[in-house]
Structures are given as C-alpha cells and as structure tokens.
Amino acid sequence: MALPKRIIKETERLMNEPVPGISAIPHEENLRYFDVEIHGPSQSPYQDGIFKLELFLPDDYPMTPPKIRFLTKIFHPNVDKLGRICLDVLKNNWSPALQIRTILLSIQALLGAPNPDDPLAPDVAKTWKEDEQAAIATATEWTKKYATPTNQTDQ
Amino acid sequence: MDSEDDFMSAVSSEDDILPDDSDNDDMSGAEDFDFDDEPDPDLGMEKSISHKRVAYDISFKVYQPGDIQKQQDDLINEVNMILDISKEEAAILLRYFRWNKERLIEDYMDRSRQVLEAAGLAQTTVGPPKLEVIPGFVCDICCEEGDGLQSFSIKCGHRYCVDCYRHYLSQKIKEEGEAARIQCPSDGCNLIIDARSLDLLVTPTLRDRYHQLLNRTYVEDKETLKWCPAPDCQNAIECGVKKKDLDKVVPTVSCLCSHRFCFGCILNDHQPAPCDLVKRWLKKCADDSETANWISANTKECPKCNSTIEKNGGCNHMTCRKCKHEFCWMCMGLWSEHGTSWYSCNRFEERSGTEARDAQAKSRVSLERYLHYYNRYANHDQSARLDRDIYHKTERKMVQLQKESGMSWIEVQYLNSASQALQTCRQTLMWTYAFAFYLARNNQTEIFEDNQKDLEMAVEALSEMFEKPVTDLADPQLKVEIMDKTTYCNKRRIILLDDTAQNLADGRWTFNVELSGVLGGNNGGPSNKR
C-alpha cells in the first residue's frame, strides 16, 4: 500500500522543521512506525529526562488517531505501567486535522501538567493527590534512573 | 401565534385519529353491541373485565417506525416555522434540547446567540450546502492539492476535500455509531454537521444508517419513549410512568409484536413484583451468596480449628482430620464430655455447643425460606417453557381435532386461548414467588397468598386438562371444562394483580427490604452529555 501523501508531508516537515525538544524518526522498513523522543519540560519532575516513545499510524490515519505509548518507564498519573497514555486527543477528541507534531506537543504538555483527577494509573494518582511532594520526588528519581541518557540501557 | 395555534389543532386532530384504548361510547358503540350479542360466554367475560379499568392497567401507545419519523418531522416543522431557522438547524436544536420544544423556544427567545453556539450552530446564514472547487486549495487532512479538487465546508469555513469529508463521516457513522453530534473535522470546532450537508456527501447506505441512528437518539432522548426489546421489533412504546413511580406501579406494556415487557426496566413482564424487587431477586438468584448459604446450612465448622466439615455418614463421633479435635456432631460439644451416653446426646444445655448451634440454625432457616420461594419461582419458569412447547404443538393438535371430530376452526380456538392463559398466568405466578420472598408477614400477605393459591390451583388444573390426548379433547364436556377453567384462570390472575397493584399504589405492602424508587443509580439526567 502506497504511503498517503499526508503521511509523507508530515514526515518531511517533522524532519525539516523539528519541534524543539521533540524528535520523531520513521523506521526505514515501516514508514508508519516512528521512534519518538520527548525531552521532559523544564520546571517539572521530568526535567532533563529524555523519554522514548513508539508511535504507529494505523491504516485509517488520519481518520483515527495514531497509536502511541511510552517505552521509558515514567512515574506519571496519566501513564500506566505499559506506557499507555490517557489523553483526550488520543481518544474521542481526536480530529483528522490534528497531526503527529500536535499530538507530541500535547504529550509534552501533559508531562508539564499531570492530571491526577483523571488517572490511568490509580496508585500513582493516589500518591499524587495525597502527598504531592513525595510523588514529585519519585517522579524525579525515576527520571534520573530511567530517562537520563547515560542510564538508558537500564530501562 | 397563528402558526402555533395551527399546530395545536393539528395535534389534537391527530390524537382523535389514532386508536385510543379508552372506550369510545359514541360511534363504535353499535359495533360493540353486535359483539356482545354473540352467544360465546368467553368473549362476554373478557369484555366485561376490560371495561372496568383495573389498578394494574396503565396507559401506553405503540409507535411504528413511520410514527416515530412523523413525530420528529412535526416537531422540526413547528420549530422551523416559529423560529425562522432552517429545518436542519431546527433538528439540531431539538436534539440539543432533547426534544423539549417549550424549553428550546423559551431559551432561544431569551438568548439565541448562546443557544446556537452551545448546540453547535453558526449565527450566519448562507445558501444551501454545496461542493466547491477553489483554486489553490490544499486539503489539511490528506495534503492533496490540484485543480479541480472538490472541497466542502459547513458554515464555520473549515474546508476539506470531499474525499476526506466522506471518509470522516463514514468513520463517525459506521465505526463510532455517531449521528446527532458529528462535529466539523477541525480540531476544537464544535459546529455540528447537519443532515442536509450529510446527504450531499455520503452514499445512500450510509445515509440510511445515519437516519436510523438519529431515530434511535430520538427515542433514547425522550424519557417517555422506549424501544420494544423483542428481537427485530422496530416499534417504540410511549408510557407516562416515571422512574420515581416505580415503587408504586409495575408498568407492563405490550407491543404490537405481542411482546409484553415492563416499561420501567425493559425486562419481561414481571407483575406483580415491582422493578426494584425483581432486580434484587435476579441478583440474589445469580449470586454465589447462596453457595455460601448452602455451605453454612449443610456443613459445620470444627469447634477448634474452624475447618469446614460435611458429615458424609457414620456416627456422631467426629474427629477433625486437620487438628484431630474430637467432638459430637449433634451438640458440637467435646466428645470426652459425652462419656458413654453419646447416642442420646442429652447434653443440649451444654455451653460448649449452644452458640455454634444457634448460628447454624439461623442460616438454615433463611436458606430454607429462600429455597422455598426459589423452587416455586423456578418451577413456574420451567413449566411456562414446557407449556410453550405444548403451545407449538397446539396448532397441530387443533388441526387434528378439526379432522377427527369434524369441529370447525372457530370451535377449536379455545385451545389457543387456554394455552395463552397458561403462559401469562405462569409468568405472573413465577413473579408472585419472588414478590412473596420480600414480603413481611401481615394480613395483606395472607390475602395475597390466598389469591396466589387460587390462581396456582386453577393453572395446574388447566395445565393438566390441556395435556390430555386429542381423542379426549374432542369430548364436548372437556371442552366446556377447559373453557371455563381458562376464563377462571384469567379472572383469578386479574384479581391477584389488581389487588397487589392497588396495595402497591397505596403503599400498603410491608417489605423486608428497603424499596427504592430510583433504580440503578445512573438514571440519565436531564442534561445530555454527548
């Protein structure tokens, strides 16, 4: 199946004008599969961390949202143990006018603003609500442990 | 104002045309008399029963797909005339207000801007929707461009190529089952795509599906309407019984497809038990809690290590396999205290066994009580199923009877009525047992149980007659007996239901559980979320 023009254009733009703090590189053998890296936003417990994600564009894309999940372990109320992400634009608020870059930006924003009231990982969200200090400490620790370039192999 | 008056008169005239279940004494009276003149005693009996309005009877109307469409069209036309907006916009507004026309008009008059915005409509008016070719246009979704690329947008002006629009709509309709609130594909644009634009874009199959989904939302949005749950039935039923009244009334309705169900909870007819009790009963029957009950009634626990023990035979001298504790199965006391007098076990007052025995006895009584009602409930359920099998044989039986005894078609119809009476009465009896399980004992209960007994005896007698071989059925004596019994069963059922419904409405029953009028917690509130 030929790659739709939309995907080609989006990929070109991602390569030529990358979003600061975000990179998305398609696999050579499957141009619908992207390796993604997102830098943790500053002034957040994820600061200085580089988080790896995988992104896949299903056949129906852009009518259906891309499938995306964290590969790097992360302590975040809206990301579960398997790295799945709870984000409205990835579900029912998806619009075909949205793009890979806009979605990745939304995920970066989610790192900067965790939403424990709408949790995917209930235990994480609980810590977040009951003892925010401790939660932030754990998130920082995990970022150091799993998302810092020198220790990447640990994940 | 003119238009409104017009509509009002239109409504009332429509009411007159539709068949009304109340009795018209004027025109059709002559016909009624003809009927009553007929010598058949059964018909006469049924007539006199239905003339008197019984307590369990509730009023309802059945609507067929055409009626449902017409109701929507009428409302849309009316709003279209009063508010001077297009029919498509009127439809979207009505759906937003869950078809509450009065509230729509009031709110629109007060603040039309906000109402339009909230409902997903634009302020501006432009011509009818059309496909356009715009030079230099690039579709944001597929990134295609080129001369002659057809594009489309609704009033918000977010323009996409026609292929993407079609693809988008088919995704929404086919995959997501969305219809009433399909928004512009643009991110964050809340404008709703109207039916006319949709008709322009999609294939006829998809359009049919879209309208089907819209019809579905109409019935689901209105509290007074419900779909008939029978397989393949497309009718909807209108009934005024509110959710909060369900502790006072059991709203059984029957569709044109002959399916009888409860308007409150959509389950099969469960008179006389109110919805809440039915829900509890079904849950109880499905629960594993009865397993636990069985265990506590049929087993005992080792007084020392609490292992569960079922006595499978032998004498009362028990030795726990786990802890080797020795005790008496009868009194649960220490075996060593028994000495040689173990068989008579006269140690009833002994403190060591009293408590264990009390707990055991209590749970046994409650289990027995449950099983008493459950067995009878399940028995009627099963018998009704068996009677249903017989019902299928009845037709053959009737044909055979016509051949063998030379009776005419009309003369063997009594078997059909008998079979139907059996079905409905068994259904009722079944639920009387679930109902009785939750009843606290008082004088009302005695009357109820007498009624129940009368009906049950009659039903069993009829069931027995009904199973007789065809040769016996030809006997005119038996025919009369069956007809009498059928009438009697129907009458007893009505008396029972009337009595229970009356008491329910007056709040005279005492239940051994708290009866809640509101069921299930998540009752769809007035505001539409999606």
Automatic annotation (TrEMBL), chain A:
Highest taxon of source: Eukaryota
UniProt GO MF annotations: ATP binding; ubiquitin conjugating enzyme activity
Q: Which SUPFAM superfamilies match?
A: UBC-like
Q: Which family does it belong to?
A: Belongs to the ubiquitin-conjugating enzyme family.
Q: Establish whether keyword Chaperone is in the entry.
A: no
Q: What keyword terms does UniProt attach to this protein?
A: ATP-binding, Nucleotide-binding, Transferase, Ubl conjugation pathway
The species this protein belongs to is Lasiosphaeria miniovina
Q: What is this protein called?
A: E2 ubiquitin-conjugating enzyme
Q: Which InterPro entries does this entry report, sorted A to Z? A: UBC (IPR000608), UBQ-conjugating_AS (IPR023313), UBQ-conjugating_enzyme/RWD (IPR016135)
The record's annotation in Gene3D superfamilies points to: Ubiquitin Conjugating Enzyme
Residues at the active site: C86
Q: Report if keyword ATP-binding is assigned.
A: yes
Q: What is its EC number?
A: 2.3.2.23
Output the Pfam families linked to this UniProt entry. UQ_con
Q: Where is the UBC core domain?
A: 2-148
TrEMBL record, chain B:
> What Pfam families has UniProt attached to this entry?
Ariadne (PF19422), IBR (PF01485), IBR_1 (PF22191), UBA_ARI1 (PF21235), zf-C3HC4 (PF00097)
Q: Which InterPro entries match?
A: Ariadne (IPR045840), ARIH1-like_UBL (IPR048962), E3_UB_ligase_RBR (IPR031127), IBR_dom (IPR002867), TRIAD_supradom (IPR044066), Znf_C3HC4_RING-type (IPR018957), Znf_RING (IPR001841), Znf_RING/FYVE/PHD (IPR013083)
Give the enzyme's EC designation.
2.3.2.31
- Gene3D superfamilies reported for this sequence: 1.20.120.1750, Zinc/RING finger domain, C3HC4 (zinc finger)
Q: Where is the RING-type domain?
A: 135-349, 139-187
Biological process according to GO: protein ubiquitination
Name of the protein described by the UniProt record: RBR-type E3 ubiquitin transferase
Identify the species of origin: Lasiosphaeria miniovina
